[in-house]
Design a protein that fits this description.
203 residues; alpha+beta; Porin
């Protein structure tokens, strides 16, 4: 029996989060319920969820499913802990064959938000950290290519991006097959968390 997003949130509000039960509930939920769940994650809930998800392996295959064509965007709706502009998207794609790194599997992506013209698109390269079981979103690297519809690739040191993206790394942990929880780092952990939910065309 599927649950509403408010029922699923009760699992996060327990004294000790049962991550297996939470994953099952989210996997059985509809795309709309998963999105409502992510949008309802307060900063306190996100912080607790990131800590509870430690050691729960996530890989690039969860971010962009195998079989997705190169340079085809996969959108993850996001909710962050900032005081404003809390809704955003991270958009990912598989590199083209011409730019595939044989020594490291990676994805390209950027942050899509309403104030992107002011902050810059926040391009990044994402890759697996096999030691921690996390996916790293690295703003210190820029992709050499992008889907045609994406904004121009610019340095993260330009516009207000220098205060937001420059030198930053995000780390993702698995919550469920569609949902991940992340935290931002600039040499040390920042008081900045976010949750993502992958949008599938057939969800």
């Amino acid at each position: 029996m599927t649950q509403s997003h408010t029922d699923i949130l009760k699992l996060v509000d327990q004294d000790q989060i049962n991550m297996d039960a939470l994953e099952q509930a989210l996997d059985e939920a509809s795309a709309t319920t998963r999105l409502d769940f992510v949008h309802a994650l307060t900063p306190k809930r996100q912080k607790r969820l990131f800590e509870a998800a430690q050691g729960r392996t996530v890989t690039l295959d969860q971010i962009v499913p195998p079989g997705t064509d190169s340079l085809t965007e996969v959108i993850h709706e996001g909710q962050n802990t900032l005081p404003a502009f809390t809704h955003f998207q991270k958009r990912f794609c598989i590199p083209s064959a011409d730019h595939t790194n044989q020594s490291r599997t990676s994805l390209w992506g950027y942050n899509h938000l309403n104030v992107g013209a002011i902050t810059g698109p926040g391009y990044f390269v994402a890759y697996d950290d096999t030691e921690s079981g996390e996916v790293v979103i690295d703003y210190r690297e820029l992709p050499p290519e992008k889907p045609e519809a994406w904004p121009k690739i610019i340095s993260n040191k330009k516009k207000l991006g220098i205060f937001i993206y420059a030198g930053m790394v995000d780390r993702l942990r698995r919550v469920s097959s569609h949902v991940t929880i992340g935290r931002a780092f600039k040499n040390k952990p920042m008081n900045a968390w976010f949750a993502l939910v992958r949008q599938d065309h057939a969800s």
